[in-house]
């Protein structure tokens, strides 16, 4: 960078190396800015979800401006001190902003543990006061990185900004695309800095292009590391298999990313014996990010005894769960208050009140859970007020700053007339059931999930229904949250239920004063059960293992839904939406197995039309085209690097057609000769004459005959011209020299 | 000079081979006296053949006078030496009319400028007016005193030296006058072997005393005519123009068209020395440093050479 002076004066005496006419130093600084931008974009997304977005934008712009000014004026020593001061001040502000209850818990071990958790994949979104945290971490690295870039110290600048971005890669907050952009920009910055310092001789630019292209293409096509359980990394082009509903919803993860098309797994997961059928809840999520859900707060150990139950009246339900495959969650009816069994000592309790195992629960490792299931009626819920506790308000009414007005307008339209929170919830639930089709085959929308589902999509599955319902309720001031788990499963006599992967589900809980959390399920039950039972029967037809226990697949068994048996007491769904009981062995109409299991990749949108119409035919993937272009660019640079064009050009120099002009023949003969010498020794420099070029090469083996061509060239060009005989001599000499260096041609012509 | 050109007998004009041979004879003869400095001798011959004058910048005592004398003797020409001092008058250079009492007429007494090879020693010690007198002769090849014009002998070549060790007592030549010199070269000190050889030669009689001519002034005149006919093709002319444009882009004051003309002349002579009837870019490159470096005005003189070197490196040869 020219303003820095330091790198410019380092060598090459003031001459600036350029890339496509732009000073390389300037480009390097620009690439650093892109990397810093990637870092800022991640924090922007965080603040968008957790709040203080506008403050963040101001802060980031201010920091960049300050760094620019300081970069021009202040020496590195003082600037470094300033950076430390800024970073330290940020973190001090974060700790001051933490609620007192949390500060009381602060201890060195705790801080260490938190840091470790953050670095090993804990999303920053899960931090308490994540908004303040984001504002605290931003200025330090941004200031230092941009300051260094302005000073022309590209490498340290990239290290600082890359470190910042790297932190968010570890916390999983940085998306793949942003990470790639950041890493690519950092790479480009360092490479351009090298060109700035040492010039682009030796094809530096080509190498840089090849490396960048390889990074983009490889990261777009090759998945070396499997995606984490709860957030499948699915390339939009559909390279990986489609995830199952279960994998995307039910696991120990603290975060759910909504994906595109999804399939159902017919495998039996566990068997539960319960005094009352229910939905088996595994996790609850409070923070909506626009593209998924995050569970905030820490877990604590279950230390025996009885956990707090719901605020209102409840009755105890005892469940005995026997895993059929290792489980990394602990399904239980809401709200679990006690656990017993081997896993008891390794049970964690989330801040939302769910249980989760500290390790996988092994096959056959039975445990007992006691749940206090809330008791309520529609009438009792209608009577509750809206004087919610502050904690509920803060956590369960928050929406991303980017939530659009049309979502809020639509929410008001749907639930505006309802007077009580309960009526609003019912209104939203019914509206969703009535207006959206159930389908497992959807393409992941680009923007906000709820907004896309409301306005652009005609169909979706439980995640879309539940997410949208929560967003609509929250924008109407009704506290709600996103819950994942399993539906009741297949009843196998008496009080036992077999639960399969395809029973995994997402639904909504709404908070009511004096009652606690109450379940609402906006997903139309009929189509969902159809899809599930079709999957099951198909799997049976195909003879898959692990689909049945000894007791299932008996004609008399019913896939019993809790809503059918407990409508009056438990679930406020009033109509018969979920009474649609399908015989397990039946073959209800529906999409063929291939489509539902998602054998066809999402990107290939040709067969979508029978799935309820309206699906926008997918772009034959902009990304694929983009990746292809980048790859092509890399290939071009690589080809340049291998000097293939030079080889081809040289091959064409093997022959020469004689013209009427002896002088032209001599010129062409000399050009061919020079091409051959260029390949073997070195090219002629711009200010080097033909004579001195050949003279210098004669010291390393150019023969007299070759030099004679040079003399003829001189005579033709500067002197009194050449004769036909001279021209023939030159052409013959050139033929000999060129063909001696082309083994194949030599063989033909000898 | 146009007169001389017209008078030339084209049938008897020597071939370029003969010009080359003449140059070799002169330079070998001079080298019997001067040890080393082969390139400088060639440079002087080029200037002599290309009707140019030469500026030597050196410390005293490296053999400048001897070199000029040896050249003059080799071509059987007259040698004159003018020691420039602060009190030297223009008439001390050009000559003066004196009254002859026997004939009662003014007769012209030739100044030292009337010689085939004139050594102007420490030219920067004389006041500007005296410098100008010499420079005028260099350009006009004639002396005008009291309304009468007299031609200096042909060939006429001035070898001027500048003393750069006592700059506080000198009148630096203005750039416009430096431009009159075709070339500026440095002799520099002889190396150890050369100096040993030199001391061996001068221990007895100085060899200059016994130096014999190897050519006549007429041979030099013929060579000068022949060189005018050496072909300068368009690519070469274009190359020179581009070099000149490059210096103009890089220096406060680049090379004037006069400088470009001088370069083409010198390159023609260089081609003839190489027994070639046409100029190649190599001739241009060989001459451009000594012909141009002193014509470029930058912050210091070294940078003038750098400008030329850079032009050679970057301007593409056709």
List strands and helices in order, with pairings.
The complex is a heterodimer of chains A (750) and B (318).
Chain A: H1 6-10, E1 18-19, E2 22-23, H2 24-50, H3 53-73, H4 76-97, H5 100-105, H6 108-119, H7 130-137, H8 139-150, H9 154-170, H10 176-198, H11 204-221, H12 245-249, E3 255-257, E4 268-274, E5 280-285, E6 287-288, E7 292-294, E8 299-301, E9 314-323, E10 336-341, E11 347-350, E12 355-357, E13 367-374, H13 378-382, H14 390-396, H15 405-415, H16 421-435, E14 437-438, H17 449-455, E15 459-460, H18 462-475, E16 480-486, E17 490-491, E18 496-500, E19 504-512, E20 516-520, H19 525-542, H20 562-565, H21 593-596, H22 622-642, H23 644-652, H24 662-680, H25 690-698, H26 704-718, H27 724-740, H28 743-749
Parallel strand pairs in A: 14-15
Antiparallel strand pairs in A: 1-2, 3-7, 4-9, 4-18, 5-16, 6-7, 8-11, 9-13, 10-13, 11-12, 16-19, 17-18, 19-20
Helix pairs in contact in A: 2-3, 2-7, 2-8, 2-9, 2-10, 3-8, 4-7, 4-8, 8-9, 9-10, 10-11, 11-22, 15-18, 16-18, 17-18, 24-26, 24-27, 25-26, 26-27
Chain B: H1 2-7, H2 16-30, H3 38-49, E1 54-57, H4 64-74, E2 79-83, H5 90-94, E3 95-100, E4 105-110, E5 117-121, H6 128-140, E6 142-145, E7 148-151, E8 157-162, H7 175-178, E9 183-185, H8 192-202, H9 217-228, H10 234-250, H11 257-273, H12 281-292, H13 301-314
Helix pairs in contact in B: 2-3, 2-4, 2-9, 9-11, 10-11, 10-13, 11-12, 12-13
Low-confidence stretches of chain A: 1-14, 223-241, 555-620
Radius of gyration of chain B: 20 Å
Percent helix among the residues of chain B?
Answer: 40-55%
Domain unit count of chain A: 3
Give the second-level CATH assignment, the architecture of the largest domain in chain B: 3-Layer(aba) Sandwich
Query: What is the rounded distance between the termini of chain A?
Result: 57 Å
Mean pLDDT of chain B: 86
Structural class of chain B: alpha/beta
> How is the biggest beta sheet of chain A arranged?
6 strands, antiparallel
What is the H/E string of chain B? HHHEHEHEEEHEEEHEHHHHHH
Uncertain stretches of chain B: 1-11
At CATH level 3, the topology of the largest domain in chain A is C8orf32 fold
Task: Determine and state the CATH class of the largest domain in chain B.
Answer: Alpha Beta
Q: Could you give me the name of the CATH homologous superfamily of the largest domain in chain B? A: P-loop containing nucleotide triphosphate hydrolases
Q: Can you give the mean pLDDT of chain A?
A: 75
Strand order of the main beta sheet of chain B, please? 2-5-8-1-9
Count of separate DSSP helical elements of chain A:
28
Oligomer, anyone?
heterodimer
Beta-sheet strand percentage of chain A? Answer: 5-15%
GO molecular function (chain B): ATP binding; ATP hydrolysis activity
Organism (chain B): Haloferax denitrificans ATCC 35960
Domain ATPase AAA-3 (chain B): 53-182
Domain ChlI/MoxR AAA lid (chain B): 245-307
């Amino acid at each position: 960078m020219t303003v820095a002076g330091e790198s410019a004066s380092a060598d090459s005496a003031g001459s600036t190396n350029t890339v496509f006419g732009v000073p390389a130093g300037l480009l390097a600084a620009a690439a650093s800015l892109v990397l810093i931008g990637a870092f800022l974009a991640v924090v922007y997304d965080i603040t968008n979800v957790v709040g203080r977005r506008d403050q963040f934008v101001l802060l980031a712009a201010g920091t960049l401006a300050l760094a620019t000014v300081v970069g021009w004026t202040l020496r590195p020593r003082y600037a470094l001190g300033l950076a430390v001061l800024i970073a330290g001040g940020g973190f001090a502000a974060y700790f001051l902003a933490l609620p007192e209850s949390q500060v009381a818990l602060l201890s060195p071990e705790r801080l260490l543990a938190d840091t470790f958790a953050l670095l090993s994949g804990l999303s920053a979104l899960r931090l308490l006061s994540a908004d303040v945290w984001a504002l605290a971490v931003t200025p330090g690295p941004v200031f230092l990185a941009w300051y260094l870039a302005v000073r022309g110290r590209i490498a340290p600048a990239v290290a600082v900004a890359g470190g910042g971005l790297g932190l968010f890669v570890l916390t999983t907050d940085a998306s793949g695309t942003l990470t790639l952009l950041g890493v690519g920009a950092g790479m480009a910055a360092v490479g351009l800095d090298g060109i700035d310092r040492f010039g682009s001789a030796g094809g530096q630019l080509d190498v840089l292009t090849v490396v960048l292209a390889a990074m983009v293409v490889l990261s777009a096509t090759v998945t070396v590391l499997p995606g984490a359980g709860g957030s499948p990394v699915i390339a939009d082009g559909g390279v990986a298999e489609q995830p199952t509903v279960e994998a995307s919803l039910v696991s120990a993860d603290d975060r759910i990313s909504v994906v595109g098309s999804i399939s159902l797994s017919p495998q039996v997961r566990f068997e539960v014996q319960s005094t009352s059928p229910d939905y088996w809840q595994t996790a609850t999520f409070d923070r909506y990010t626009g593209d998924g859900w995050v569970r905030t707060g820490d877990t604590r150990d279950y230390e025996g005894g009885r956990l707090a139950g719901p605020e209102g009246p409840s009755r105890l339900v005892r469940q005995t769960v026997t895993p059929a495959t290792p489980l990394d969650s602990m399904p239980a009816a809401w709200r679990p208050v006690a656990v017993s069994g081997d896993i008891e000592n390794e049970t964690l309790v989330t801040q939302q009140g769910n249980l989760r195992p500290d390790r996988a629960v092994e096959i056959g490792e039975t445990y007992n859970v006691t749940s206090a299931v809330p008791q309520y009626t529609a009438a009792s819920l209608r009577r509750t007020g809206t004087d919610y506790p502050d904690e509920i308000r803060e956590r369960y009414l928050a929406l991303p700053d980017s939530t659009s007005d049309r979502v809020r307008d639509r929410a008001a339209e749907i639930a505006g007339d309802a007077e009580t929170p309960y009526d609003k919830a019912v209104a939203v639930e019914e509206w969703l059931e009535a207006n959206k089709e159930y389908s497992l085959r959807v393409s992941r929308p680009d923007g906000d999930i709820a907004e896309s589902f409301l306005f652009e999509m005609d169909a979706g599955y439980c995640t879309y229904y539940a997410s949208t319902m929560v967003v609509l309720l929250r924008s109407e001031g009704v506290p709600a949250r996103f819950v994942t788990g399993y539906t009741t499963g297949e009843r196998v006599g008496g009080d036992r239920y077999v639960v399969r992967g395809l029973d995994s589900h997402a639904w909504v809980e709404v908070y009511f004063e004096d009652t606690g959390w109450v379940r609402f399920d906006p997903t139309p039950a009929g189509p969902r059960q159809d899809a599930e039972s079709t999957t099951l029967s198909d799997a049976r037809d195909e003879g898959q293992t692990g689909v049945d226990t000894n007791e299932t697949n008996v004609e008399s068994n019913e896939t019993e839904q809790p809503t059918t048996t407990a409508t009056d007491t438990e679930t406020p769904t009033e109509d018969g939406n979920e009474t649609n009981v399908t015989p397990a062995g039946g073959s209800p109409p529906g999409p063929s197995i291939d489509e539902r299991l998602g054998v066809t990749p999402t990107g290939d949108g040709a067969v979508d039309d029978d799935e309820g119409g309206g699906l926008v035919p997918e772009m034959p993937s902009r990304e694929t085209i983009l990746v292809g272009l980048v790859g092509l660019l890399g290939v071009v640079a690589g080809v340049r690097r291998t000097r293939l064009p030079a080889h081809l050009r040289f091959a064409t120099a093997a022959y020469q057609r004689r013209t009427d002009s002896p002088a032209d023949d001599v010129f062409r003969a000399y050009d061919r000769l020079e091409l051959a010498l260029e390949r073997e020794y070195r090219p002629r420099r711009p200010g080097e004459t033909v004579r001195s070029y050949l003279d210098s090469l004669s010291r390393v083996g150019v023969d007299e005959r070759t030099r004679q061509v040079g003399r003829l060239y001189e005579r033709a060009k500067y002197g009194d011209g050449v004769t036909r005989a001279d021209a023939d001599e030159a052409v013959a000499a050139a033929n000999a020299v060129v063909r001696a260096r082309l083994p194949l041609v030599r063989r033909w012509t000898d | 000079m146009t007169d001389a050109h017209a008078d030339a007998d084209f049938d008897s004009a020597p071939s370029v081979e003969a010009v080359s041979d003449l140059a070799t004879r002169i330079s070998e003869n001079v080298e019997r006296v001067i040890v080393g400095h082969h390139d400088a001798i060639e440079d002087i011959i080029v200037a002599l053949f290309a009707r140019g004058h030469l500026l030597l910048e050196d410390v005293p005592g490296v053999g400048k006078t001897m070199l000029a004398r040896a050249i003059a003797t080799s071509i059987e020409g007259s040698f004159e030496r003018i020691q420039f001092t602060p009190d030297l008058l223009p008439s001390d250079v050009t000559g003066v009319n004196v009254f002859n009492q026997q004939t009662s007429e003014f007769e012209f007494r030739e100044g030292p400028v009337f010689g085939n090879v004139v050594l102007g020693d420490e030219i920067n010690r004389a006041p500007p007016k005296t410098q100008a007198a010499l420079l005028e002769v260099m350009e006009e090849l004639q002396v005008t005193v009291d309304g009468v014009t007299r031609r200096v002998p042909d060939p006429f070549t001035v070898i001027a030296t500048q003393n750069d060790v006592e700059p506080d007592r000198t009148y630096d030549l203005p750039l416009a006058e430096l431009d009159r010199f075709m070339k500026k070269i440095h002799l520099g000190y002889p190396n150890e072997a050369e100096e040993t050889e030199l001391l061996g030669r001068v221990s007895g009689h100085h060899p200059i005393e016994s130096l014999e001519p190897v050519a006549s002034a007429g041979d030099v005149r013929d060579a000068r005519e022949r060189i005018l006919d050496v072909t300068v093709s368009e690519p070469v002319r274009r190359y020179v123009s581009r070099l000149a444009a490059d210096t103009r882009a890089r220096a406060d004051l680049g090379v004037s068209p006069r400088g470009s003309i001088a370069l083409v002349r010198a390159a023609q002579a260089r081609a003839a020395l190489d027994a070639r009837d046409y100029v190649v870019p190599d001739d241009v490159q060989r001459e451009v440093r000594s012909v141009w470096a002193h014509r470029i005005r930058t912050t210091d003189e070294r940078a003038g050479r750098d400008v030329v070197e850079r032009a050679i490196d970057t301007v593409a040869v056709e």
